[in-house]
Amino acid sequence: MTSDDGAEAIWTFAQAFTSSFQASCSGKALRLYTELASRLKVANADSVHSIAGEIQAFNKRLTEATGRLPSYDQRQNELQLKALEKSLEELRSSTAGKTKFAFKRKVKIPAPASAETATPPAQTNALAIPTTPISSASRTISNHSNSYLSRSCLSGPSSSTNHIEVSIIGVSNSVLNLLTTTNESTLSANTVSLSALHIRDIQNSILILGSVDGSIMLHNLTNCVVVAGCHQFRMHNSTAVDAYLDITSNPIIESCDQVRFGAYPSELKTTSDQQHLIIRDHTELPFLPQDFSHIRATPSPNWRALEEDELVRDWPLPETNYTVQLERALPGPKI
Fold this sequence. Notes:
Blueprint: H1 3-37, H2 45-65, H3 71-104, H4 112-117, E1 137-145, E2 148-149, E3 163-172, E4 175-177, H5 187-190, E5 193-203, E6 206-211, E7 215-230, E8 232-236, E9 239-247, E10 252-254, E11 257-263, E12 290-291, E13 303-305, H6 322-329
Parallel strand pairs: 1-3, 2-4, 3-5, 4-6, 5-7, 6-7, 7-8, 7-9, 8-10, 9-11, 10-12, 11-13
Helix pairs in contact: 1-2, 1-3, 2-3
């Protein structure tokens, strides 16, 4: 296996493990919340034992994966597991409290009706659980070349949720513009909210992604421009990428080179779904990129901030003449 194959295998494992682990923990957190909210009776104490066993299994899974996860993922998974353990302790305390109460009053058993109508004691401690992910549908944008793609490509079958998770795969020599517009062809897609984006195998393209509620994961990009507002940005195995971001955490790169960062451009704040973005029209970065391939005290050679004269000003928003603007905006990899 080559070093590139090994790096990709580690990346794939980390993404799959973290996604599965956090989904499992979030599901267990919801069950904990439900059990505590209903004030478990003594007869249901076995449920506490069952949940404890499952949390112990999560702990074992995470221990076995240690060493194969990036440090950021390891930390996030550990924090989620600790939150679950804290919730379990609160649940145990609640159950223990009810056990004592039942023992003192066992000589006087209330009728079932009165148990249903009794007012429960005030809950003094809120349950600390990880946030449960918003249910979302999915869309895939794939295998496009020499194309201009608008937000209308997000249209799809009706769903019970307006949150969608999008995979963007195999796009080259194209512009993908997901900003909302007043164009009738995109009106149905305007109501859709992007919960997460998974992007891979993109060459010589501009991705104007707009606002994303969650994370953006990118893999294998070459000679591209990415514009997005998001909570988490992670890019792997990519070369010559300019990323213009509004982000609530520090962007992460790994096995990347010739990456340049800039702040989200004010000229793209044109529609309602962009109103919450914090626009800073200058070259001083409002975030500090983290290079997982360069964990040292010295600055990473794999990224830098865009200079004033390198910023894109003429964005290919309309479809007309997009090929000319595409050629001007792309960074161009250095051999």
